[in-house]
Amino acid sequence: MSTTVDVVVVGAGPVGLLTAIELTLGGVHVLVLERLAAASEAMKAMAVGPLACEALQRRGMAAGIVTEEARSFAVMKQFTEQTGADLRGRAAKFSGHFAGLLIRKDAQNEPERRACAVGQQGLEAILADRARALGVEVRRECDVTRFVEQADGIDVEWASPRGPGRIRCAWLVGCDGGRSFVRKMAGFDFPGTAPTSTFYQVIAEIDHPERLLPIGWRRTSDGVFSYGPVPGRLFMLDFIGTPEDRQAPVTREEVELVLRRISGADVRVKALESGSRWADNTRLADTYRRGRVLLAGDAAHVHSPFGGQGLSLGLVDAANLGWKLAAVVRGELPDSLLDTYTAERRPVAEAVLANTLAQVAILRPDPQSGAMRDLIANLMQLDDVNRLISEMMRGLSTRYDFGSERDDVGRLIGDRPIGQGGANVSLYDVMQDGMGVLLDASTGGNASTLVATATQRVRCVAVDTGPSMLIRPDACVAWAGEGNGTDGLEEALRRWF
C-alpha cells in the first residue's frame, strides 16, 4: 500500500473537523474524507451550547466566534426591524426553551456560561480555517465505500470523480452523520425509537409573515411552528406522520401546504431559499468503539432537535475523543483509554435523548399531552425546577464518573478565567495547543515537580491560591489537591497522561 496515516476521519462537518483538529494538536497524522463537494448550505443549528463553545475557544477559535456572532446579530436586527419583535428583551430574560417553554435567566447558576449565536454554516467555516492553519488534509468528493480491519490497522477505500482511492490507517473515526456508513459497516448496534413525525427547517419568502407572529413557539391542533429570529426562517413540527421519501428534496409547495395546515394562517410561500426535513427517530449506538473503529456526533446518536443540543453534544464528543486517541497513537497510553470515551460520553447522550423524547411528548396535540405540558409549565415557575432544566439543556449538569477518585473531581468551568489570588489564569490562553494543564498552588511547586517527571504533555502554571488542579486537555478536572498535598496526583497522571 502506497500511503498510510495514523487516523482517517470520515466526515468534514463540525464534529469531524474538530476531531481532526484535536488529533493534529496531539501530533497525529490525520486524513479527513468527505462525501460532499462543499459544505452544506442548508440551515441547521443556529447556536452552539456553552461546553462546545468553550471547547472551540480553548483551541484558538474565539475571534472567529466573535465575528460570526456579530454577523448573526446583524441578521437578527433585520428581523426585529421588519417585524418589531423585541429580540433583545427576550434574550435578556430567557436562555433557550424546553419544548417551547421559555427558560428564565434569573434563576440560573452561572448565567455567564451561555450559548454562542453561531450557525452551523459559520461554525464549519471557523473550523475549516483552523484545520487549514494546522495543515489538516481534507479531501472532498470522497465517498467511503469499504473498509477492512486488520490486526495492525484498517484499509479504507473510497470513490471519487478522480477515481478510486485506498489508504491504510491505524484508526478510523466515523463522523458521517445519522445515516453513518462507518457505523453500519462496522456492525454497531443502533437501537432506539422509530420515527413518528416530521421536522422542517427552511428559509422562505412568505407573502404575509406578520400573520405568523408573535415570535415564539406556537403549538396548534396540527403541529408546532416558529417563525424567526432571522428573516424567512421557519421551523415546523408536523405530527401527521413521516414522508414516503425522506431523501426527496423539500419543495416550495410542500412547505406551503404544511405551514398553512399547522399555523392556520392564510399565507403563501413565494420562494424557497433552502429547506431540510428529518424525522424524530431517536437512536443511540451500543458502544462508541468497536475494535479500531470509533464513532462521534450523529453517527453515534440521533434525536429530535429541540433545544439545539445535537451539535454541541457531538462537538464535546470530539473534544473528549481527540486527545485520548492521540495519546494512544503516540504510544503513551494503552488503547483501553478509549473505553473511557464511551463510558463518559454515552451517558450524556442518553440524557439528551431522554429529554428530547420528553419534549416531543408534551408538544403533541392530544389532550393528555397538553395537560402534561401545562403541569411542566407550572413547575418551571419554581426557581429550582427552572434551574435544573436550564442546566440540563445547556449541558452543565454533566459530571463524568471517575470511580474511586476524589469527590471534588468534576468538570472544570472552562469558560471562566480561573482566579487564583493575584493571578488570573484563562484556560483559553494556556490550552491553545491541546496540552493538559496543572494549576499549581503548592508551596515550592511540589505538584509541578511531580508532573514534570511524569509527562511532557502537561503545562504547569503557578497560581496564588488553591486548590491545585490537574486539568485534562478537554478541560475536565482530573485531580484536585489542597495545600502542599499531592495524594492521588501520581495515580491521575498514570491514568490520563
Automatic annotation (TrEMBL):
Gene3D superfamilies: 3.30.70.2450, 3.40.30.120, FAD/NAD(P)-binding domain. It comes from the Bacteria. Its cofactor is FAD. Keywords: FAD, Flavoprotein. Residues 5-355 form the FAD-binding domain. GO terms for molecular function: FAD binding; oxidoreductase activity, acting on paired donors, with incorporation or reduction of molecular oxygen, NAD(P)H as one donor, and incorporation of one atom of oxygen. The keyword DNA-binding does not apply. The keyword Oxidoreductase does not apply. PANTHER family: BINDING MONOOXYGENASE, PUTATIVE (JCVI)-RELATED, TRK SYSTEM POTASSIUM UPTAKE PROTEIN. This is 2-polyprenyl-6-methoxyphenol hydroxylase. It comes from Paraburkholderia phenazinium.
